[in-house]
Design brief:
Layout: H1 14-25, E1 29-33, H2 39-45, H3 48-55, E2 61-65
Parallel strand pairs: 1-2
Length: about 70
């Protein structure tokens, strides 16, 4: 059985806020969406999902769900 909690947090950088709350809750999994932007645009504008993926602790798994139709 999968159990979950939904939390709202205010942070200067959303990715850091998500990782912080996940660590506080002792989360095993973070599930989040992505807009499916290309690599160049993501590099310029930044990506919350990339930030969470690269800064979450080793014990937390991150599942990123891509959109059905990616923007061109």
């Amino acid at each position: 059985m999968i159990e979950g909690k939904v939390r709202s947090v205010s942070a200067d950088k959303p990715g850091e806020g998500i990782v912080r709350i996940a660590e506080e809750l002792g989360a095993d999994l973070i599930v989040m969406g992505s807009r499916g932007e290309g690599a160049v645009r993501r590099t310029i504008t930044g990506s919350v999902s990339d930030n969470v993926l690269h800064h979450s602790t080793v014990t937390i798994q991150v599942l990123i769900c891509l959109p059905k139709h990616r923007p061109k």
